[in-house]
Structure formats: structure tokens, C-alpha cells
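Q: Given only this backbone (182 positions), what sequence would you predict?
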């Protein structure tokens, strides 16, 4: 018997329980630039919904993985399935990102992904809080900037970088974009 698509399961079960989620990570980034491989599926959710999410997905072949105050992973028991990562944000932030996001089809199902600005902010925040992520996340940011022809010299983009990243990250982005255009 063929296993049910995890995207279909999440869409159906979250809708039944009115759980709001935003698809982030590689699947979202691939909507804004040439596709890259991703090893997991990432979501923004309200932490208060995670116990329901956990109980929904365990019968479909997932077990608890690492968990912190801002993150939880459900690990796939089947090798052909992807792990599921959940980044916790408060309900107000989730609503804003959801409302300003866009609908896309992934795995035959409809999901909201963040606006490109929110996705870049999430990546900047990740690098700021875990410098080990800089190489991968900065590459994703630069790819999205180039593919979408974002102007990194606007005050709005600078403010985004300084609010969610750092002056150093902003300078690296400027330096790369200046080299790429020359």
C-alpha cells in the first residue's frame, strides 16, 4: 500500500484542528530562487499548537526528536520520509507572516510561505543566533536577492538586516552584491 503524502496529511489534519502554519525552509526558499535540495520540511507554528501537532503526526510514522524553547523536530521513522521541523513563534507574529505571505502548491497541497522579506528576516535571525549557519543561510539569502533582483541599498532592506541580523551581515551582503554586479 502506498504511503499518504505528508503534505496532504498536514493540510487535512491541521485544517480540521484549525492549526495555522507557514511553510518555511528549503521548500519556501525554492519558490524565490532556483531550487535546492532540502532534507527536511520546516514550518512556523504557534508553540501552543505543538502538542496537537505531535499527537496528529506520530501515528503517521514520526517520533520526537530534539526540542528547545523555540524549536521541535519530529523525526521520520521511515527512511523515505523527511523529518519535520517546527519553529515556534507567538500567535501575533505567525498571523502577520501568514497574512503577508503567499499561497503556493507543494506536494499537490496549498501552503502559505512567507513574503521574501519575512523569509530573509528568518534567515538573518537564524545566522545571528547560530553563526554556524552562516555559510548555508547567507548563501540562501544571496540567491534570493539575485533571483528576485532585490535592491540591497534601500533603507528598508538595510533596516531589515540590522533588525534581524547584524551590521556585519548587512556589510557582507552589500559586498557580495557589489562584486556580483561588477
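A: Predicted residues:
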Amino acid at each position: 500500500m502506498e504511503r499518504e503524502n505528508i503534505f496532504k496529511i498536514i493540510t487535512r489534519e491541521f485544517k480540521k484542528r484549525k492549526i495555522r502554519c507557514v511553510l518555511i525552509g528549503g521548500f519556501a526558499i525554492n519558490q524565490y530562487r532556483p531550487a535546492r535540495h532540502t532534507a527536511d520540511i520546516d514550518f512556523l507554528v504557534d508553540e501552543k499548537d505543538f502538542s496537537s501537532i505531535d499527537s496528529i503526526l506520530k501515528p503517521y510514522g514520526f517520533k520526537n526528536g530534539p526540542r528547545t524553547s523555540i524549536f521541535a523536530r519530529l523525526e521520520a521513522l521511515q527512511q523515505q520520509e523527511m523529518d519535520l521541523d517546527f519553529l515556534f513563534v507567538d500567535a501575533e507574529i505567525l498571523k502577520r507572516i501568514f497574512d503577508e505571505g503567499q499561497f503556493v502548491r507543494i506536494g499537490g497541497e496549498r501552503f502559505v510561505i512567507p513574503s521574501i522579506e519575512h523569509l530573509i528576516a528568518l534567515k538573518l535571525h537564524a545566522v545571528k543566533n547560530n553563526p554556524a549557519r552562516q555559510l548555508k543561510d547567507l548563501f540562501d539569502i544571496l540567491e534570493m536577492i539575485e533571483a528576485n533582483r532585490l535592491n540591497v541599498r534601500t533603507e528598508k532592506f538595510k533596516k531589515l538586516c540590522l533588525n534581524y541580523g547584524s551590521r556585519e551581515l548587512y556589510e557582507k551582503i552589500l559586498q557580495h552584491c557589489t562584486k556580483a554586479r561588477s
